[in-house]
């Protein structure tokens, strides 16, 4: 699992693996809501990255924006394993 | 076969023989649970693994067990941090019990749930994973002052009053904003989140659990 200093560890690969193995199971509504939240977060994150006034840790933000799509994919797969679409 | 009636076989491992014997003894008195030697763990339904804390060596060991046997693991630990929970889940841990609060009944309940869960994460661990996802999202959203629903505190205040049936004038009065500001906030919410009108915005906030 990728480690980023003392901040929250990333677990996108773990979640993807859990979803692929059928261990991460969410009902369709829950998964849809989580995916929508994550996509919104990604949109805000890209906006933040493009903001010339942003003074936060850009490296960490880039890491988050690289990692969060894995969570989106994991939640989508978790739904598929529960409710075939 | 009905898991209520069939025997669930369990192998127990702890850092010392006394703890191993204690856990096996507690479980052994529970109906429907059959204890096997650790060496015969490949033939069991569930593994019970006790440790003081999750050191990197223990995580490695659990990972090896998951690869070899693929059995669900009930973990009994004295302490575990949020950061250690995800690696534990990765190693097929399906329940985490604090050592100080582990009784025979609780252990048996966790073992039965592990045996019947089909490997699916139980709600408690799933909840921890979802909290982890929220914490990551907050790292992105906090600098912008919005929550995971994409709403600011000010917007949530306005939506809450809208949900109470208040009109623009009443909301402005209650929050000490101008009417123009309230209209601007509502337009910001509906425009940004592609919501059709005020009731749609209120419904969105309710569904997102922010009001």
From TrEMBL, chain B:
Signal peptide from the UniProt entry: none
GO biological process terms held by the UniProt record: regulation of DNA-templated transcription
Q: Which InterPro entries match?
A: Sig_transdc_resp-reg_C-effctor (IPR016032), Tscrpt_reg_LuxR_C (IPR000792)
Tell whether Transcription regulation is among the UniProt keywords: yes
- Keyword entries, A-Z: DNA-binding, Transcription, Transcription regulation
Q: Name one GO molecular function term.
A: DNA binding
Task: Give start and end of each HTH luxR-type domain.
Answer: 144-209
Q: Please give the start and end residues of each transmembrane region.
A: none
Q: What is this protein called?
A: LuxR family transcriptional regulator
According to its UniProt entry, this protein's organism is Amycolatopsis japonica
């Amino acid at each position: 699992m990728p480690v980023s200093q003392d901040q929250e560890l990333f677990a996108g690969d773990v979640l993807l693996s859990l979803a692929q193995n059928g261990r991460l199971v969410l009902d369709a509504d829950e998964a849809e809501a989580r995916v929508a939240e994550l996509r919104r977060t990604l949109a805000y994150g890209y906006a933040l990255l493009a903001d010339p006034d942003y003074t936060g840790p850009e490296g960490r933000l880039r890491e988050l924006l690289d990692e969060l799509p894995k969570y989106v994919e994991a939640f989508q797969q978790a739904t598929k394993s529960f409710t075939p679409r | 076969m009905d898991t209520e009636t069939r025997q669930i076989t369990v192998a127990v491992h702890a850092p010392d023989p006394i703890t191993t014997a204690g856990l096996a003894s507690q479980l052994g008195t529970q109906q429907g649970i059959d204890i096997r030697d650790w060496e015969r763990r490949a033939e069991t339904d569930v593994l019970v693994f006790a440790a003081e804390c999750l050191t990197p060596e223990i995580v490695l060991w659990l990972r090896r067990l998951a690869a070899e046997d693929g059995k669900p693991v009930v973990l009994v630990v004295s302490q575990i941090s949020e950061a250690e929970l995800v690696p534990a889940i990765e190693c097929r841990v399906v329940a985490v019990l604090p050592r100080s609060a582990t009784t025979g009944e609780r252990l048996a309940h966790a073992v039965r749930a592990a045996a019947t869960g089909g490997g699916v994460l139980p709600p408690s661990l799933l909840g921890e994973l979802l909290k982890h996802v929220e914490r990551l999202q907050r790292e992105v959203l906090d600098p912008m002052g919005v929550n995971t629903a994409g709403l600011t505190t000010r917007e949530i205040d306005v939506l809450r009053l809208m949900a109470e049936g208040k009109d623009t004038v009443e909301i402005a009065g209650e929050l000490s904003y101008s009417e123009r500001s309230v209209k601007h906030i509502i337009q910001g919410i509906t425009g940004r989140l592609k919501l059709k009108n005020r009731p749609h915005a209120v419904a969105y906030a309710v569904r997102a659990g922010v009001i």
